[in-house]
User: What shape does this take?
Amino acid sequence: MPKSKRNRPVTLSKTKKKGREHKENVVNSIRDAVEKYDSVYVFSFENMRNLKFKEFRERLKSSSRFFLGSNKVMQVALGRSVADEIRSGLHKISKLLRGDSGLCFTSLPKEEIQRLFNEYEDYDFARTGSTATETVELKEGPLDQFTHEMEPFLRKQGMPVRLNKGVVELVSDFVVCEEGKPLSPESARILRLLGIKMATFKLHLICRWSPEDFEVYREGLEDSDVESS
Assistant: This one.
């Protein structure tokens, strides 16, 4: 009987080599993009939804290329100082790559990119740990939106429910979540069942670089953030 490939040990040196090769490929791809496209933007994101971002990226596939991942690797690719930047001024872009951010290389006019990013937002169900954007309270009485099969599940989520002649009934008022507080796993599940979407996936432009100029878009970024060291 042949040995299962799943059980074959992988040496640490191989995993390190693979990781290094991936980083080198990202660095080379970013450097190629600098030469291919007219400008590059740093953008940040809130409540990332991979599928939605993939759809957004596909819309711009013919004119743009996006990079997400390790900020450090992207900074190395661009250059983190005047001494090692691959094009003049790119170290300023590099310094603003922090937190939840990425790179967008594009040949589209800046007005078009600004419009696409500023207009884009998509609503989705909030996940565990997200901050509730409003207080949701259910009042005592029948919950007609739920079938009787749901009653055991709702009880497991902490809801004070019972079956009354086949109808799910809340025996007392119940606060699902409170505005400004993080959502528990149970709260997130109940909100999904109620169809209440509290998460908004948004993209924000931070800055733009081109061979001719450099612009910072987001307020609150001080000059010292982009000055060369």
In short: The first helix runs from residue 12 to 36.
